[in-house]
From TrEMBL:
Pfam families: SAM_1, Tim17. It comes from Urochloa decumbens. It is a multi-pass membrane protein. This is SAM domain-containing protein. Residues 208-258 form the SAM domain. GO terms for cellular component: chloroplast inner membrane. It is found in: Plastid, Chloroplast inner membrane. Coiled coil: none annotated.
């Protein structure tokens, strides 16, 4: 009996997963909390790595991630059709205007592969162009958002075959429509997310943290009275004093160095 207990103890010590499971059963750890913290740690590390890469590397990665997400969404939407194909058959001897409208309907009602391709191009282009515009302009604004929407709309029109026999004109028209809608949504979003009057001194700080995905540290900035006027003066020790971890500190300082207006303000 003693040998059996000793063998079980040795097995638990030799297996980290078994030991972790045993601690979880005793209530000494929270697997879900540990997994969430690990995911956030990986995400923070990935953002820190991306911030140090050249613009073409960041744009390529952003495009690839956006294309994968859009392809998955498009494939899911296309799988909802009964036969996996377009429910809109092509009528014979149709006039050009009717054919253009039909092509638009077919582009939005294709099978899984067609929809995956169309949405992958659209979302990938939007993510890549947004990334480039953000790096060039130093911030995420309505001009960059509309430029990304125009590019993604034009490419979506070309790839999906909408608007033949005038694909170039239709690509420009579709891109302009995407840009107008995106600009409208951007302005509406800014209006509803407009900070209170007492928070106007933190508007630029809030925008920077939101761009980096570090919104949860806004309270640290306010606690340390680190407002928009202090952004050009921020140092690692100042961010450490308000209890911001090393990874986010690197992202914030790197973003400040990349912002041409903050660099000129120093």
């Amino acid at each position: 009996m003693t040998d059996g207990k000793r063998g079980s103890a040795v097995a638990l010590k030799a297996s980290p997963s078994a030991a972790a499971m045993a601690r979880g059963l005793r209530g000494g750890s929270n697997p879900l909390g540990e997994w969430t913290a690990r995911v956030k740690e990986i995400e923070t590390g990935f953002r820190a790595w991306m911030a140090t890469q050249p613009i073409h590397v960041e744009a390529a990665v952003a495009t690839a991630v956006g294309a994968v997400q859009g392809g998955a969404l498009g494939g899911l939407m296309g799988s909802l059709s009964a036969d996996g194909g377009s429910p809109f058959p092509t009528p014979p001897n149709a006039n050009p205007q009717a054919m253009a409208s039909l092509k638009q309907a077919q582009a939005l009602a294709g099978g899984p592969l067609v929809q995956a391709r169309n949405f992958a191009v659209m979302t990938g282009a939007n993510a890549g162009i947004s990334c480039v515009m953000r790096r060039i302009r130093g911030q995420e604004d309505i001009q960059g958002s509309m430029a990304a929407a125009f590019g993604s709309g034009a490419l979506f029109s070309i790839v999906s075959g909408m608007g033949t026999p005038n694909p170039v004109v239709n690509a420009i028209t579709t891109g302009a429509a995407f840009a107008v809608f995106q600009g409208g949504f951007f302005m509406i979003g800014q209006k509803f997310s407009k900070p209170a009057s007492e928070d106007t001194y933190y508007s630029r700080t809030r925008s920077m943290l939101h761009q980096l995905g570090l919104e949860k540290y806004e309270k640290n900035f306010k606690k340390g009275l680190l407002n928009d006027q202090t952004l050009p003066l921020l140092t690692d020790s100042a961010l450490r004093d308000v209890k911001i971890p090393p990874g986010p500190r690197l992202l914030i300082l790197d973003q400040i160095k990349r912002d041409p207006e903050l660099v000129r303000a120093k």
